[in-house]
Amino acid sequence: MSGDTLRSTVTIQNPQGFHMRPASAFAQLASKYQSSVRVQKQDQVVNGKSPLELMVLGAEQGSQLTLEVSGPDAREALNALLALVASPEFNETTEPPSPAQG
Amino acid sequence: MRMSDFVIRDAIVPELKANTKEGVIREMVESLRAAGAFKNADPEDIVKAILKRELLGSTGIGRGVAIPHTKHNSVDRLVGTVALSRPGVPFDSLDGEPVHVFVLLISPQDRPGDHLRALENVSRSLRDDGFVRSLRQATTREAVWALLDDQDQQPH
């Protein structure tokens, strides 16, 4: 696929971790884009467009995940996903996100 | 948090009668109640909580599977059950397909870690198409239990 491969690391802020609601929201958003989306936690890499795969990561609050987006709309896709992961709604909190974002 | 750790064997429903979302949830909660999974609980309250969660977004995550769930103070440890529907049930799934395999999870109020670990294990099993295929062919509680137990032994 032509286009860029972009990577960014995020920290899960949600006190309940990367459970079904945020995983479904992430997967649905990722699926809107042509680019492939892979999510890595330590040595596990999964397809970011699949809620089931994302939940296999079992990422708790404080986990670091690396997003790798590759394709013609990579920049747009990554920006959207980063915005989602930083949002209070995604994190089920009214706190603003902490500064430690990749 | 393997499936055989929290699935209540006696509450497995190998052949659902219900053919609606609410009906399936009721049937699974009733099965758990009959198996003694709740202490002093109003099952109606549990059903309502599960349905309320569905309003936030379907737990029908595609590929013919759904993982309805809630937290509830009627349980002091995470409990669950598995139910199968031969014809499939419309569940507002993310991919628009009916659901054949349901895994219901009920966790205590303040154990997000347990819930996350259970989701992790359930997801790891349900993303295995071979496992889901075998489940869909099971016709008895014993057969379903054997498959869960077997799956838990697999390296993933």
Overview of the structural elements:
- The complex is a heterodimer of chains A (102) and B (156).
- Chain A has one domain (4-91): HPr-like (Histidine-containing Protein, Chain: A).
- Chain A is 33% helix and 25% strand.
- Chain A has four helices and four strands, in the order E-H-E-E-H-E-H-H.
- A four-stranded antiparallel β-sheet of chain A has the order 1-4-2-3.
- In chain A, strand 2 and strand 3 (44-47) form a beta hairpin.
- By secondary structure, chain B is of the alpha/beta class.
- Chain B is 44% helix and 18% strand.
- Chain B has six helices and five strands, in the order H-H-H-E-E-E-E-E-H-H-H.
- In chain B, strand 1 (60-62) and strand 2 form a beta hairpin.
- In chain B, helix 2 (21-34) runs antiparallel to helix 3.
- Chain B starts with a helix and ends with a helix.
- Chain A binds chain B through residues 15-21, 24-25, 27-28, 50-53, 55-58, 60, and chain B through 56-57, 59, 61-63, 65, 67, 69, 94, 112-113, 115-117, 119-120, 122-124, 126-127.
Proportion of helical residues of chain B = 40-55%
Query: What is the class of chain B in the CATH system?
Result: Alpha Beta
CATH topology of chain A: Histidine-containing Protein, Chain: A
* Full CATH superfamily name of chain B: Mannitol-specific EII, Chain A
Rg calc of chain A = 12 Å
Oligomeric state: heterodimer
What is the CATH C-level name of chain A?
A: Alpha Beta
Spatial order of strands in the largest sheet of chain A: 1-4-2-3
β-strand percent of chain B reads 15-25%
Structural class of chain A: alpha+beta
Number of helices of chain B: 6
Low-confidence stretches of chain A: none
The CATH architecture of chain B can be given as: 3-Layer(aba) Sandwich
Output mean pLDDT of chain B.
Answer: 94
Tell me the strand percentage band of chain A. 25-35%
